[in-house]
Fold this sequence. Notes:
By secondary structure, the protein is an alpha+beta fold. It has one domain (7-91). 21% of the residues lie in helices and 18% in strands. The strands form two sheets. It has a two-stranded parallel ribbon. Strands 2-3 form a two-stranded antiparallel sheet. A hairpin with a 5-residue loop joins strand 2 (15-19) and strand 3. 14% of the residues are buried.
Amino acid sequence: LFKQRVINVSNAPPVSLKREKTGDWNIKQGSGGLVSCVDPVMTKDHENIWLANLGMNLKDRKKSMSSEDSEYSSMAPSTNTLGLPLIKQAIAEVGFLLL
């Protein structure tokens, strides 16, 4: 059986990200029109993907992978997988990778 996947590419992620004083990321579902419109499609299958720009300039950061405090451990989780189900995964404590 052939199965198709939806890949949504947008300038804005389907979530809002806020860095807490503890260093943890607070992830909330976005409330914009695109999110509302695409939500039924994206949540229908966990294989659907939402690619978005988090608005971070990685070129301005030092590129060091030598410690746990590197730029990669301090960045927001990526929205490269699952779109709105991303929030459900965050609640389930599933890890996220930065592309």
